[in-house]
């Protein structure tokens, strides 16, 4: 059994690999991540900000997004973000509806 410090190091390394993977695949749109995995790069930034603040570290959202995207969000959006297709928007809305239905059960 590993100690908590080592577990935290492993989890942090895995998180960094996930962020690097997403940076290396900007063709994967946030809407696609939201449809299939129910999280996106912006969610990761929000989680990073929340965890920093839970530990008494001030981290504004834009700085957190830059840590995730590897550049200012506006720059990433201009370079890589495409307009969501009607099919993607429909799939996203259906995903949200299913989540609401599950939550109400």
Automatic annotation (TrEMBL):
Residues 28-93 form the SMc04008-like domain. It comes from the Bacteria. Pfam families: DUF1244. InterPro entries: SMc04008-like_domain (IPR023163), SMc04008-like_sf (IPR036810). This is SMc04008-like domain-containing protein.
